[in-house]
Amino acid sequence: MSQSKSLLSSTARLRESEDIGSNASENPTIGDMIAARLNRRDLMRGALAVGAVSATLRIPAFAQAPAPTAKSAFNFVEIEAGSDEKHHVAQGYDADILIRWGDPVLPGAPAFDPTKQTAAGQKLQFGYNNDYVGFLPMPGAADPSSHGLLVVNHEYTNEELMFPGIGGRQELKQANFANMTKDLVDIEMAAHGGSVLEIKRENGKWQIVPGSKYARRITAETPIALSGPAAGDARLKTSADPDGKTVHGMVNNCSGGVTPWGTWLTCEENFNGYFWGAADGHPDEKVLKRYGAPANQYAWGKYYDRFDIAKERNEINRFGWIVEIDPFDPTSTPKKRTALGRVKHEAAAGITARDGRYVVYTGDDERFDYVYKFVTEGRVDSQNRAANMDLLDRGTLYVAKYNADGSGEWLPLVHGQGKLTAENGFASQADVLIHLRLAGDAVGATKMDRPEDVEANPKTGKVYVMLTNNTRRTDAQIDAANPRANNRFGHIVEMTPADGDHAATAFRWDILVKAGDHTVATTNASFNPATTKNGWFGMPDNLAVDNQGRVWIATDGNSPAKTGRADGLWAIETEGPLRGTSKHFFRVPAGAEMCGPFFTPNDETLFLAVQHPGEADEDDPKAPPATFEQPATRWPDFKDGVPPRPSLVVVTKTGGGKIAV
Ligand code: FEO
Ligand code: CA
Ligand code: CA
Ligand code: CA
């Protein structure tokens, strides 16, 4: 095995497709509004930011520590920030492995054997890189927090960690995936998608119900219907599907959500990575480039014409959607809901508006891309599940504009309104939806620092936007909502809908926290000074709101080289004098990112997803390339010859009780 340094770890591979920053539109940055609004909190604290444009000169917010009597909303002793081969949870809690990549999901699944992998086996086994995790209580269960369905996304695959003898990611790509046989590609395709698991808590411990009728695997080959306004559009038709209404598979399903009517929303994010070819000279060159496509990150195009844009022009238009799945009916056909638009969807977290319409928030994870929401036309019917099943096919899609004065507006993305007309290239609502990034450009949305999860807190009505980082933002491009150039550590924007109405088109916004080490002035981070050296984090990605309305943040991109800590889960105060204080609760093993925080209704169980353990630290130039033979950790099995395995972790309080109470 070559020991040459991996210049492109698999995280880097993912980022390469996430981070291209393909937004060349002229939507405003601070260049247009240089008299930037000071963060309201900065003003309250009297931190007058001279000129307000120099990230490094700004005086951090929260210059004063809160009174020592201020009471934390979270009762636990935080863990040490750091990184090693294991996971760590706060003292007094159990963190048990529920299921690992390769464990059985469906009857007949072979036992996991990394030297005897097959696509047929993988289709019956738990997939790779678990990201979103949602829990849906079993209707009629005696205790809705002890029995239900777990829905899990399998975002992507790390072939260099999955398969023996194929080398590191950089070598693979340099060799144009020469080592990736069709058999290996088929295993990868089967390891994508999602899993549905029935789980029960008995005697305090969670178990997967064997032989459950609900158990299901969705893969990159499962038939999925296209529904909503763009279904059947000419650009969704392919040689295999002349009707433009059925796609095989979903890919790069990052985060998601669950609905009050008991369905699972799962988001296709970096779909561009799966396609081969070149945008230059392609008939769809302009829009392909706006989506950073194709990115040639997998070998699928070598064996499947549909993943080669030169051979099948439209297949790529059939990815990048939010998919709705009914996990209570394992025979149901998943649906790509085109009304919610086509971007690199990070997540889809919803909330019922005051008048009963359902609102789904979603971010487009790319440098300088946008935050969206969708408001259904119909209302949620809590008495009639069937009446809700196609609610997401009709409604209004909006994109966010953050003004410098702390106000904001949701701009409608409706064909015929404003600039979304035929003369500007939008001849139909299908045009708007399939080329949603172009529609966002046209209406003047605010270019953000990589929007990841966007989720409402039902207790306060506030909406939190994770902006993970954007190292390409320049001083000339900073704006009030994205106030740091070279934003290495990301920030969190808090939005307050007008009159507390999630269907409203007006909102106010503020910055909850600018991430990074707040004790280093040049970082210009803004954690509350009550935050300890373990308590700060970088690169917020997912969030969960527990049933008490407390906010928890999962990160992606911390590393010993970048922040002196692994990724993990932090609890963050959002109200009162401790607002902006975060505390470290859980950390992942080397190379992993933290995904999927989700609480049961009683807050006694926290589901976590540990994704891509064993990857090399891409920010450490001395880190050797990670391979099957030489991973950064062998978590969670720690057996020679067994590679690291992405796994779900179940956190409960030792002896029972609500978490962090
Ligand atoms: Fe898959 Fe944007 O993280
Ligand atoms: Ca992820
Ligand atoms: Ca993510
Ligand atoms: Ca991420």
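^ calcium ion complex. The pocket of calcium ion (ligand 4) is lined by residues 452, 468, 541, 556 (CB under 6 Å). The two ends are 50 Å apart (CA to CA).
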